[in-house]
Design a protein that fits this description.
about 475 residues; alpha+beta
């Protein structure tokens, strides 16, 4: 770890404990404080491993990351079993057989004397780093600048992994190894590649993962001083769209003006997906009406880097556009590059479309609406091909259960301010699989990130004060669950 971590201490802003705080809770607080330097050092060691789970990257790095996480989990000394496991994914597209998922860590210890069991989820794989020149420091060299730790995976989601490890460690220090809470730990290795083996993994390990409460540590906080519980997540539909208009390329000077090339057709087709205000104009994609906290355009500009003079898009409150309305983004395009451009009518163009769908709508229903729109609006009779489709379901959290109440109390004690309920514009599609397999479990979606974390982007970072409070929140929650009966 480089940078000055001493003059910008991660303890800054740590909530002072109440005089009425219980002995066990005070012991947990002290343990989190004392172990924080080691916890950050362990996080830095994980960040140094380039565990990109995408198919084009070396699987050996993900395996190395799994080994490192498993070692940390074994060192806790609380689990009856700690294993590195892989699930078989869908059948391979060619050549028969099946594809193996990336390695995950599965650990478990049973509950005793009527205590509940909690499943702690995070993922150890990361997004590709992108271009090195877009980073202010090497993406896989953890670097502290000010109150933040920079590096790919520093926030998403190796900090989530370490939040689980550190909170269990604090519980052990406070109450000893013989605590009665049941814990299952599942650290996935391919979340950033779509969790393609997740459903299979759940089915193959159902009993080891069965729990009363599920904590998914892969979301955001409201800001660096205010915790949050994520209660709404958009789903997703991604696809590759190819438009063809010609059997072969032709000279643009000789035939341009009479023959529609694929780029023209693609531009006109993509334009039909949006209204004049930039909102999604696909019939059949739905929205929901939920209250949202105050969030100004100025805050949006500050958090996103929206350039001066460029206006936001859409309608309604800004957070409703992000949390409870559909959004459609063209995330990639295959076409001749500017450097390689010739005076040619392009016969075919492909784009990657990523659509976020509002809670309350099924991904299959949304996919039908998108495909219907694309085929009905193809200009000039262009040939439309849609493939490489991936879907994920949206999710609304039931906040009426006792686990949410316990989590709110733990967060309030750790942060010194109560949490807010937030929606997230991104997606965590596997939560729908958790609900399918464990319908009685209460699900808590928490996280270690803040609006400046820039997950998936260059200069991803973790606010160390947020991280400390997130660890303390989860440790407090584990302590409360360890004392609970009659779940």
């Amino acid at each position: 770890m480089t940078g000055n971590a001493q003059t910008n201490s991660p303890t800054k802003g740590f909530a002072a404990h109440s005089e009425a705080e219980s002995g066990a809770q005070n012991a947990i607080r002290t343990a989190v404080e004392q172990w924080l330097p080691s916890t950050i050092a362990d996080l830095c060691a994980l960040v140094r491993i380039p565990s990109v789970s995408w198919a084009a990257f070396d699987r050996a790095h993900v395996a190395a990351s799994a080994d490192a996480v498993a070692a940390l989990v074994r060192d806790l000394g609380v689990f009856e079993s700690v294993n590195i496991v892989q699930a078989a994914t869908v059948p391979a597209s060619a050549g028969g057989g099946t594809e193996l998922g990336q390695p995950a860590i599965l650990a478990s210890r049973p509950a005793r004397n009527g205590r509940p069991t909690v499943l702690l989820y995070a993922h150890h794989d990361v997004q590709p780093p992108g271009k090195d020149e877009d980073w202010e420091s090497d993406p896989f060299t953890p670097t502290v600048r000010g109150d933040r730790l920079y590096g790919r995976g520093a926030a998403d989601d190796k900090a989530g992994v370490m939040a689980h490890v550190a909170s269990i460690r604090a519980l052990v220090v406070a109450v000893g190894l013989d605590f009665e809470l049941g814990i299952a730990l599942f650290i996935e290795g391919e979340e950033e590649f779509g969790s393609r083996s997740f459903a299979t993994f759940l089915d193959e390990n159902r009993e080891a993962l069965r729990s009363d409460v599920i904590v998914v540590a892969d979301s955001n906080n409201w800001d660096v001083n205010t915790p949050a519980i994520t209660t709404a997540l958009r789903g997703n539909v991604t696809l590759r769209l190819t438009v063809r208009t010609l059997a072969h390329a032709s000279h643009s000077g000789m035939f341009g003006g009479a023959v529609p090339d694929a780029m023209l057709a693609m531009i006109k087709l993509l334009a039909t997906l949006y209204g004049d205000d930039g909102s999604v104009a696909v019939a059949g994609l739905t929205s929901i009406d939920v209250p949202t906290p105050d969030y100004s355009e100025e805050q949006l500009r500050a958090e996103t880097g929206l350039l001066p003079g460029v206006s936001p898009i859409g309608y309604g409150s800004i957070l409703s556009r992000i949390w409870s309305q559909p959004a459609l983004t063209v995330t990639g395009i295959d076409a001749p590059s500017v450097d390689n451009a010739s005076n040619t009518l392009t016969p075919s163009v492909s784009v990657r479309i990523s659509t976020r769908i509002a809670p309350g709508q099924s991904a299959v229903e949304a996919m039908v609406a998108i495909e219907t729109h694309l085929r009905e609006h193809a200009p000039f009779g262009a040939v439309i091909e849609i493939d490489d489709v991936d879907t994920g379901e949206p999710f609304l959290v039931d906040t009426s259960g006792w686990a949410v109440t316990e989590a709110r109390s733990a967060m309030t004690d750790a942060w010194g301010t109560p949490p807010v309920d937030i929606g997230v514009g991104g997606s965590i599609p596997f939560i729908a699989d958790l609900v399918r397999v464990f319908p009685a479990a209460q699900i808590l979606v928490t996280g270690v990130e803040d609006p400046d974390s820039r997950a998936h982007s260059p200069n991803e970072s973790l606010h160390l004060g947020v991280f400390k409070r997130a660890v303390l929140s989860e440790a407090f929650l584990l302590g409360r669950l360890n004392e609970r009966t009659g779940h």
